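Aim 2, interim progress. The first record below pairs a target sequence with its structure tokens.
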Amino acid sequence: MSGARRSSSDGRSSAESADESASEHVSATNRTRAENIPAIERASGREWSAWVSLFEAQGAPTLTHPEIAKIARAALTDDLRNPEWWAQAIAIAYEQHAGLRVPGQSSTGTYRVSASRTLPLDRDAAIEAWATAHGSRSEHLGHAPTEPRTSRTEKRSFWRFGLEGAGKVEVSATPKGEKVVLAVSQEGLADGEGIEAWRAHWKSLLAAL
């Protein structure tokens, strides 16, 4: 964790860097992607500046991610849907704001990127469409995929594979009404320099479906 926190002075992908002028509640040093802030404020009923004050009053810059998430959870009401999830999201947003975590960086110091598309299919058909269109690819941006694995839970269907030298990929299909959200999540990137290239790659494959 400490290695991830020291990385705040590293170079960042310009598209992943925060838009510092996007929210009046965010300081000029904020590195949180601006679109996260309004959602956090709506869900929590607390302005972002108040969240920042709360964290800093409890010494959050010196704390670990679980400790920061615990502060966030204690400040959320139990009637909020998925309060644990929101506590994690708020903690991550603060870590990005304070320069403790680069957007796209996990608590282990590696990086992740994701993209999604809503399709007029059921979840299994969406995974099948992905497999038909892209399952036989021999490479993704020069990285060879491992043998894919499929699985399904009560709520989602999955297509997972590794990428040699570029982490692992999960394609998930989650029902949304009569449609499905097909999402691609890549984890384990060694640095953030290629995040936007990977995002564009996954978006182009989703767009081809």
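The second target in this work package is listed in the same format:
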Amino acid sequence: MTEVVIQPAGLTIDVGPGETLAESAWRQGYRWPTTCWGQAECMVCAALVTDGEIATVPADADEEEAMRLRMPRHLRKPQSRLACRLKFTGDGAVVEKKGVRPPPDPQTDPEGVTT
């Protein structure tokens, strides 16, 4: 497993071999914003790799094309990646994505009331 830090939430997500960041987050119950669920169409899962880029698998042509065609220009940055395509080669990456939430606590109900 590869550990990836998600900011600003301060979460650490374990990403399995060959798994994308979004897939691993969803598998573990994290809320990772999306509307297309991994189809590289909505751009809602887009994130910034702010540190440890060397631990990422470079974007392939499909990811680059999706961002070029669908992502608003003002959001495109050199460190922009789609979490539904982002894979890792090892620990050390820090990714910035607002709206990521940890899995629900099994000890509380959806309203946050302890059971």
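The helical segments are 21-27, 61-70. This observation will shape the mutagenesis plan for the next reporting period.
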